[in-house]
């Protein structure tokens, strides 16, 4: 045996041992940022208010153009103390949440009928898609002719605005149910009602809560426009009247109220979602 061959055979076991040694496990890379504490979600709005206040106090924003937040808060407190603000706030809240409740209820029912039956999809889905393409503002003339200029018209238009996102997202969630769950329900012999209660509704909840977050914002967005149409109550009415008199502080009060209600409504939906869907492991948890 040659010396070169002996060296090769002597080296081979060590090389095999080297290849068999497992590599150290790779260190996992966290691509998802940690979830922020609840209070940190307000850091952006608070920073905006601080910059706004600084710009007002340094003269970059004149009071005639945009009132400082501190001035608007004082004005809002005075309006609340003298009883001017509360009746208008309650009127706006009643319109917004009545339309929201109707939109959520009817939207879920239509999504169930369309998402779980072929006949329902044939009759309902196309109609909702047509409404999706028609802006809510375009329906105002017809709604006034049908329902007048009272509360029914405003609630109806808020309802139509809320209906679309509720239906679209809930319907998509129902259509996205894992076929394995459907086959398992069939194997277990679940009735139609049991399938809806135990499989369809739980599967649709994530999409429903996404839709609900959109809907609570839309109900207030639609209300802002509707309260400018021949009404004597509501936050929008106060803002419209303040515009005629150049009272920017009252206009800013209305904007702050709408913003606060939007944030509070979204936070309420997030809270309910976290409790109802606590079994899910969400991103950043």
Summarize the structure.
This protein is an all-alpha fold. 74% of the residues lie in helices and 0% in strands. It has helices spanning 3-20, 43-57, 69-81, 85-116, 118-133, 140-147, 151-175, 179-187, 192-226, 235-245, 248-276.
Rg to the nearest angstrom?
A: 29 Å
The class by helix and strand makeup works out as mainly alpha
Outline the low-pLDDT stretches.
8-18
According to CATH, the homologous superfamily is MetI-like
Q: How big a fraction of the residues is strand?
A: under 5%
Number of domains: 1
Main CATH class: Mainly Alpha
Could you tell me the mean pLDDT?
Answer: 81
Number of helices: 11
CATH topology: MetI-like fold
Overall form? globular
Query: What is the element string, with H for helices and E for strands?
Result: HHHHHHHHHHH
How many runs of DSSP E, i.e. beta strands?
0
Helix % is: over 70%
Describe the oligomeric state of these chains in a short phrase.
single chain
Largest sheet: none
CATH-defined architecture = Orthogonal Bundle
Termini Cα gap:
65 Å
């Amino acid at each position: 045996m040659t010396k070169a061959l002996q060296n090769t055979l002597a080296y081979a076991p060590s090389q095999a041992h080297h290849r068999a040694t497992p590599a150290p496990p790779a260190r996992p890379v966290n691509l998802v940022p940690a979830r922020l504490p609840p209070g940190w979600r307000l850091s952006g709005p608070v920073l905006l208010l601080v910059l706004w206040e600084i710009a007002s106090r340094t003269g970059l924003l004149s009071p005639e153009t945009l009132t400082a937040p501190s001035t608007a808060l004082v004005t809002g407190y005075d309006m609340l103390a003298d009883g001017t603000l509360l009746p208008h706030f309650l009127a706006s809240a009643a319109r917004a949440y009545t339309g929201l409740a109707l939109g959520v209820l009817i939207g879920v029912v239509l999504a169930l009928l369309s998402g779980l039956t072929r006949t329902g999809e044939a009759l309902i889905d196309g109609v909702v898609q047509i409404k999706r393409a028609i802006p809510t503002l375009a329906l105002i003339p017809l709604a006034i002719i049908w329902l007048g200029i009272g509360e029914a018209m405003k609630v109806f238009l808020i309802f139509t605005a809320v209906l679309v996102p509720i239906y679209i997202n809930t319907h998509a969630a129902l259509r996205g149910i894992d076929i394995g769950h459907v086959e398992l329900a069939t194997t277990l012999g679940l009735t139609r009602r049991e399938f809806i209660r135990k499989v369809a509704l739980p599967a649709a909840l994530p999409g429903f809560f996404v839709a609900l977050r959109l809907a609570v914002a839309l109900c207030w967005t639609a209300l802002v426009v509707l309260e400018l149409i021949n009404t004597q109550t509501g936050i929008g009415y106060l803002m419209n009247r303040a515009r005629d008199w150049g009272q920017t502080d009252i206009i800013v009060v209305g904007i702050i109220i709408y913003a606060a209600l939007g944030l509070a409504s979204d936070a309420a939906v997030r809270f309910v979602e976290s409790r109802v869907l606590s079994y899910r492991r969400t991103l950043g948890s």
